[in-house]
């Protein structure tokens, strides 16, 4: 027999996945608006951010209701806590997507600066990581979550390269400083998205293994330093 | 923490029917341990083995050992009356004697001849009532019938009665299951307070109550001890799938 709480947890799962899907789409569209110089699409991404905010509030409310009315324990409790902590992270990722779209609007008013492949590969990796972490959440796959965490380094390395190239460009061609600075912001947004996806992966591990892997215990860290 | 109670390989039988299977468990001094599990899982039977309350049941048999402070309570030299004074018990249904509030608490002190004078008796009664968080509510009507108290007060009177003979261990068998939320909260606060001086074992069907008041939780099913762990671990990440299924309500 299905427990009453199962129905609520099912709704919560669906709402989170819908938020995840909407966030993925926002990220993809924001980069498309930049690549294709599509200001209409950029406007849509910015406008749709409100939908994400509403979704966040709905999920918050449902988490509070489940805790208050059903007093979840063990896996159920970890599930509700994980969803409550993943939700604002997804919302922030969507905020970054909206910020990229805002940058796209400005950049689309300037002549195109040369294409930065690393910027698009950063977005590609971030998109894949986001998709994989949502898959890992759905399938309760702690192993996949740990693999996704490792990919954040790929984004960081690409960011370093983009950063160097853009600074170089600003020095060489001061007339493009303004658009280059906006591209730098875009790169920074993507780098942050990588960090946020990592946070979600860590919460997936908490959900499946009840282990906190976000911060290493102080003692171990000290030991390492001593070594 | 030192072990107050050590149970080893305990089997318990009601005649031919085996109710407990190979239970080994330690309860530390000044610790609250909650026993949870579905009805008929043996948790109350187990609680009652700790002060030999099952002895009165015809055909009841125990194998294995229960040691309190290192002495086997089932050894032939054990004086059961002394044992039950040391290991007090509070039941699901409050059961005050048909006497005054004062006499209910004084009874055990009197029969055990623990007092030295009338004043000493009154002092002991007051202390027990204070320890049971009941004194302020009854101090002006000590000589009225205990039946005039509310359900929650009657239960705290029974706790005072148990405390009056200065036990070291308190066994509580669903002490708040018949009480309203406010009276329940008082009993729970009392358990937390009493833990400073007593070792407490509490059987409860209310999982949130176990979570709130106990340091450790033991989960029983079909007469077997499935898991014992610190309560916070038990309710966030139990070791056993059966425990997980029980505390999340996957089976009754």
Description:
The complex is a heterodimer of chains A (227) and B (252). Chain A has 227 residues and is mostly helical. Chain A has helices spanning 4-35, 39-70, 74-108, 117-138, 142-172, 177-209, 218-226. In chain A, helix 1 runs antiparallel to helix 2 (39-70) and helix 5 (142-172) packs antiparallel against helix 6. The radius of gyration of chain A is 20 Å and the shape is globular. Helices cover 36% and strands 27% of the residues of chain B. In chain B, the strands form two sheets. A six-stranded mixed β-sheet of chain B has the order 6-7-8-3-9-10, with helices on both faces. A four-stranded antiparallel β-sheet of chain B has the order 2-1-4-5, covered by helices on one side. Chain B is of the alpha/beta class. The interface between A and B is medium-sized, with 11 and 13 residues.
Key terms:
heterodimer, A: about 230 residues, mainly alpha, about 0% strand, globular, B: about 250 residues, alpha/beta, six-stranded mixed sheet, four-stranded antiparallel sheet, 10 helices, about 35% helix
Write the layout of secondary structure elements.
The complex is a heterodimer of chains A (227) and B (252).
Chain A: H1 4-35, H2 39-70, H3 74-108, H4 117-138, H5 142-172, H6 177-209, H7 218-226
Helix pairs in contact in A: 1-2, 1-3, 1-4, 2-3, 3-6, 4-5, 4-6, 5-6
Chain B: E1 3-14, E2 17-28, E3 32-36, H1 43-49, E4 60-68, E5 71-72, H2 80-86, E6 87-90, H3 101-111, H4 118-131, H5 135-138, H6 151-164, E7 169-173, H7 181-194, E8 199-203, H8 207-213, E9 216-221, E10 224-230, H9 231-236, H10 241-247
Parallel strand pairs in B: 3-8, 3-9, 6-7, 7-8
Antiparallel strand pairs in B: 1-2, 1-4, 4-5, 9-10
Helix pairs in contact in B: 3-4, 3-6, 4-6, 6-7
